[in-house]
Amino acid sequence: METFDTIRTVLAVRSFKDTPIPEPIIQHIVEAGRLTASGGNSQPWHFIVVRDKETLRQLGQLARTGPYIPQAPLAIVVAMDRNPLAISDGSRAIQNMILAAWSQGVGSNWVGYNNLTEVNPLLGIPEEVSVLAILPFGYPAEAVGKGQKKRKPLGEVAYKERWGKPFE
Amino acid sequence: METFDTIRTVLAVRSFKDTPIPEPIIQHIVEAGRLTASGGNSQPWHFIVVRDKETLRQLGQLARTGPYIPQAPLAIVVAMDRNPLAISDGSRAIQNMILAAWSQGVGSNWVGYNNLTEVNPLLGIPEEVSVLAILPFGYPAEAVGKGQKKRKPLGEVAYKERWGKPFE
């Protein structure tokens, strides 16, 4: 899908078909994370690609806001080295992965926010590495309304030359 | 440009032609920011679109790592409400804007990191809003090596099912 169309139409998906995601698409998603720019090119990320049903079930139990994770055929756990730019760098990588997936018809959603310490022992992640998010990936179970996003109007968030002068 | 190709090829651009960016492309870039997903859909961002030469010159002086900003025909100043997810939400919006631009042949680079307090009085931004970044945008002055990124190999950043088991 063309880049701006992907950005324009991508929506959070929380209900998945159990259709497996083809291997080349999974590779693209992981590559989209790996290739992201980061502060000082430090690449402070680790992506754990989970397809095991039992692990997905446990991730769904550990993530308070992600009980639907086990429905997805795939989840990527995003773990970050602790450095001052990690949240920012990890967020950019997550955005890239969600867009790469959506452009191939695969939906996702950001689950958790640096509050997933119980995932460390489950996946053998060292204590000094922080789990920023779990991203379940799968084909949407229901059609998602393309481009129907609830967002503030342009004039409220974009200004021309100076604060307060609406950009049109 | 197709989404994954955009993600794969985008590189930081620090040297710009003075060719103006067509209005529809500027609109796409700003829309890419506005349409970004955010925690609790709080949309805590403000985008100040700067084309005034004198303002660009002053931004280049204020941003220690962005002396090249005045070369660019456009800069977007990204200012965030102070909330716990602002850095993450703002980083996702910045990623979207950089990708939307690159897919149309327009380069950019992330300048500054929440350390641009002198930009507030210059643009009339309230003190309680924090300038996360300045993004200069323009057509690259030199050809940028497409896809030649320095990144860790896949096996070092992606694992299969558990930490430490390389994903291939």
Structure overview:
The structure is a homodimer of 168-residue chains. Helix content of chain A is 33%, strand content 17%. The first copy, chain A, has six helices and five strands; from the N terminus they run ααβαβαβαβαβ. The first copy, chain A, has helices at 3-9, 23-34, 53-62, 86-102, 119-123, 154-157, and strands spanning 45-50, 74-81, 107-108, 129-138, 158-160. In chain A, strands 1-2-4-3 form a four-stranded antiparallel beta sheet. In chain A, helix 2 runs antiparallel to helix 4. The longest helix of chain A has 17 residues, at 86-102. Chain A starts with a helix and ends in an 8-residue tail after the last strand. The model of chain A has no long low-confidence stretch (mean pLDDT 96). Chains A and B meet through helix 1, helix 2, strand 1, helix 4 and strand 5 of A and helix 1, helix 2, strand 1, helix 4 and strand 5 of B.
